[in-house]
Amino acid sequence: MNELAHTTNEHRDYLGAKIGMWLFLFTEILLFGGLFLVYSVYRDAHSTDFHGAAQELSTVIGAINTVILLTSSLTMALSISALQRSEKMRSALFQAATIILGIAFLINKYLEWSEHINHGFYPGSTDMLAKGHGQVLFFGLYYVMTGIHGLHVLIGMGLIGFMLVLTVKNKISSSDFIKLENTGLFWHLVDVIWIYLFPLFYLIT
Amino acid sequence: MENNFYHTPGKYPGILGWLFTTDHKRIGLLYLGSTLAFFFVGVCLGLTMRLELIRSGTHFISAQTYNALFTLHGVIMIFLFIIPGIPASLGNFMLPLQIGARDVAFPKINILSWWLYIIGGALAVTSLFTGGGPPDTGWTFYIPYSVRTTTNVSLALFGVFLIGLSSTFTGMNFLTTIHRLRAPGMKWSRLPLFTWSLYATAWVQLLATPILAITLLLVIIERSFGVGFFDPARGGDPILFEHMFWIYSHPAVYIMILPAMGAVSDIIPVFARKNIFGYKMIAASSLGIALFGYLVWGHHMFTSGMSDTARMIFSLLTFLVAIPSGIKVFNWIASLYKGSIKVDAPLFYTLTFIFLFSIGGLTGLVNGALATNVHIHGTYFIVAHFHYTMFGGTGFAFFAALHFWYPKMFGRMYKEHLAKLAAIVLFIGFTMLYFSMFVLGWEGMPRRYYDYLPKFNTPNLISTIGSWVLAIGLFIMFYNLIRSLWTGEKAGDNPWNAATLEWQTSSPPPTENFATIPEVTKGPYTFREPA
Fold this sequence. Notes:
heterodimer, A: mainly alpha, Four Helix Bundle (Hemerythrin (Met), subunit A), 7 helices, elongated, disordered N terminus, B: mainly alpha, Cytochrome C Oxidase, Chain A, globular
C-alpha cells in the first residue's frame, strides 16, 4: 500500500461526533454542577440572607434575558433545519440572528452588572463587607455564576460565527452538518444553564 | 526505506511534523517524552527534600523553601506525571492498535490535549519564578492558607486547570474511540484488558476532572476578587473546599492505578503462556473501582470534623473499594499458577509491582479504619502508603509496560540483564526509602515538616540513602532504555509471541497501523490456535 502520508483519509462518523459532543456537554454540566452545589450549600445555611439579597436583582431584566436566550435557541434550531433542507442563506441568517440575540443578552448583563457595581454591590467593596455573610455569598455566587455563564455565551457566539463562515463557504452542507448541530447543542446547553440560573437568583424573593 | 510512522512525513516539515501531528503514535511519544521529563524534575525535588531530611536540624534549605519543594513535588508528580503517565503515552500509542483502528476518534483534539498539557505545565513551572514565588500550600491547596498566601498560587492553579482540560479531552476521545472504532469481530468480550482499563479510566477522567476544574477556578477567583466562597473570614466554608477537592482527587488515584493494572493484565498472560484467569471479573472490577472510587473521598477528611455516622459510612465504603483490587491481585496470581512462566524484564517488574502494590493497598486499609486513622493521619505513614501505591504500584507497572511495549514502539530490544539489574536496585532503594517512612509515621513523625526530632534520625538516614540507591536504579534503567534506541538489537513484529492486535503489525508500526484492518476471531490471550 503506497499511501502518501499527507493525504488525509476523510473519516466521517456522524454518531461518533455526536457521542463526543454529548460527553463534552456532560463535563460542562458537571462544571456548573459544582457551582450549583456551592449555591445549595450556602443557601441552606443562609436562606433568609439569600432571600433578602435577591431583592436587589431586577426580575424584569432577568425575564427579558430569559426570553432572549430562549428565542436564540429557536433561531439556532431553525438554522440547522434550514441547512438540512439546503437553504444556505436562510441558515446563515438564522445563525446571524442567534449571534445578535447573544449580543443583546450580554448588553443586558453589562447594564445589570454596572448598576450593581455603581451601587456598591461587588465583592470586596466596603458596602459588601458590611453586609451579612449570606448576602456576601449570594452576590459572590451571582457574579461568578452569571460571569462564567456569560463567558460561555461569548464562546458560543464565537463558535456560531465560525459556523457562519463555514456555511457561507459551503464547508458545511445538507450532507455534512454535524459541526453546526454540535454548535447548536452547545448553545442549547448555555440556554439550559440560564434556565436554572434565572429562578435561583431572580425568583427566590 | 522502512515504512514506519517515524519515516512517513507529517503534514508539516521537520519537527513541526511531530509538534502538530495527528498520528496517535507520535502523540503518544510526545507525551512519553514530556511526562518523563517532568518525572525527572519531580525526582530531583524529592532527592533535594530527602537530602535536607538526612538528619534533624536545618541544613541548607529554609522552611519556606521546603514548603515550596513538597508542593511542587506533589503538583508535578501527580498532575504532570502520574495522571497522564500511562493513559496519555502508552494508552495513546496502543489503544487504536489494540482495537484494530487506524487512529483515535478525534485526532486533532488529541494533539490539542497534548498542547494543553504542555502549556499548563509551562505555567506551573513559570509560577516558580514569578510573582510571590513558588506555591507553598502543598499540592492539596487547603483553605484558608491557599487564599491568604502571597505565593504564586493562582498561576499554578491555572496551569493545573489547563492540564485538567487536557485530561478531560483525552477521556472523551478514548471513550468515543472504544465505542466507535473497534475492528470487525472485536467484541467487548475480546478487548484486551489494557483497553478495558483505559475505558474505565476515561470515564473517571471525564466525570471527575470538571469538579476539580471549577474548584480551582473558585480559588483563583477568591484570591483575585475576594469573593468569599471558602474563606471563613468572608462567610465561606473551608471544609466545602476539602469536599470538592477530594471528590476529584480521590477518583484521580484510580485514574492513576487502573491503566497500570490493565497493562499488568496484558503482560502476565504473555509471560505465563496461558489465558488470564477471570477475564470478565477483571474487566468488571475496573468498572467497579471506577464507580466505587467516587464514594470514598471522605476518608481524606476523617479528622476534619465530620459526624461519626458520615465517617463510618466512608470507612465502610473504603473497605469495599479494596475488594475489586483484591480480585485483580488474586486473578493475576491464579493466571501465573501452572503457567509456563518466563521471567523476562516485563514480568520481573510486574511481579515487583504486585508485591509493592499489595503493601500499599493493605496499608490503605489501616488508613481507612477510623481508629488507626486518627493516629497516622498527617504522618509519614500516609506518605509511605501513597508512595507504595503510586510509585511502587503505578510507577513500577509503568516501568513494566515500558519494557513490554518498548520493542513495538522503537523496533529495538533493550539489554535484558541491565533491565533486571535496574529492577533489583530500584526495589532495594524503594524499600529503604519508603518502608522507613511507615516506621517513622507509626512512631509519630508528622509529614510536610522541614525538620524533626532527633529520635527520628536513624530511619530518616536509611530513607535518604535509599533515595540515592533508587536514583541509581532509575539511572541504570533509563540508560538501558535510551541507549538501546540506537544500539539495541532490532526487534521483530512480535518478540513476545503475544496475541493482542498491536503485535500483529510491524515494529514500529506503519502510519496507518495495519495494511488492512484485521478481522478478529479470537480473544486477546489465546496463544494456541483452536483445534
